[in-house]
Amino acid sequence: MSKQLMKPITVKGYAVAEPTETQKFLLKPIEQQVNSLGENDIFVDIIASSICYGAFHHVGNIPGHEIVGIVRHVGERVEKDGKIAVGMRVGMGWNYSSCLECGSCKHHFENLCDSSKPFMNAPIGGGFQNGVVWDSRFVYPIPEKLKSVDAAPLFCAGAAVFSPLKLYRESPYSKPNEFKVAVLGLGGLGHLALQFASKMGFHVTALSTSANKEEECRLFGANDFHVHTNENSVKQLNSNFDLILNCVSTDIDTDKFVKMLKPFGKLAIIGVPSSGSIKAGAFAMIMKNRSIVGSGGASNDQIREMLNFAAEHNIKPQIELSSLEKVNEAMEKVVKNQARYRIVMVVDKEIVDKENQ
Length: 357
What we know:
7-stranded mixed β-sheet; globular
């Protein structure tokens, strides 16, 4: 049953208006009304919302899937359950809901559910506005140590790199103290991947196209740095890594990176290739039991673990602050690869200022 609110809530945000040559689409102001909540729903006043490049791959009515806010209203079942309460600071990411009954859900991989619904399916969804309605079973309390503007990018970028580091951290070929991780690309995903991998205790190598990024990569936790367009570097890296996280959103020479893997090594595809496909030769994989794996975000349990790990180890994104009113300007900067490394839109300035005191 739905719960009628005592007073309708007007939500103001920005929705897709039309394509443009420079940034694929233009966002325009809109207003929506929330009159009631489903039994598992909550209404959240947004504090901060960050911009993921994935917004350009899945354009719904209102983009945005890295969201932090304060719970203001809860549905009847949520109220009885008590796990999510009014006044709690929570975050939301790509997944709005799943069936919670299939094999994937029962094995606690809700993000892999065939009936999983992304954020654009929420009744009032998407982070480019001042409030959202969300399924309470897919929101996550935020540790006190994490500021809202730092927590927002963790709900997509942080989750996306944390999950494969947890799932693929063991190898029949390398002992735990020999396990080597490489991160391809220093961007919204890559700069967080370096931090998580380093704090997990792995030997971490940054792979970049630019020698100018070495100092920055080492500050984020890289033990080694290589320009992968340098032929001499590439040759010495063959059969060197147990896991490579591909964090770039362009097409890559997949075979080159497969050959950098040790036997049983894995190339994890996190960034979406610009062509939408991956081409790789079979021989290099077959001869050394190498594999290419996908990484479909993180499960509910993994997101909770990731947030606690980030808080404990002081892992946070490098961000630029903006506002909802400047969303088109911010989106254009992201698509031109000028963001360093996440643009976070401040929605509730009073709370953000208070956290920074």
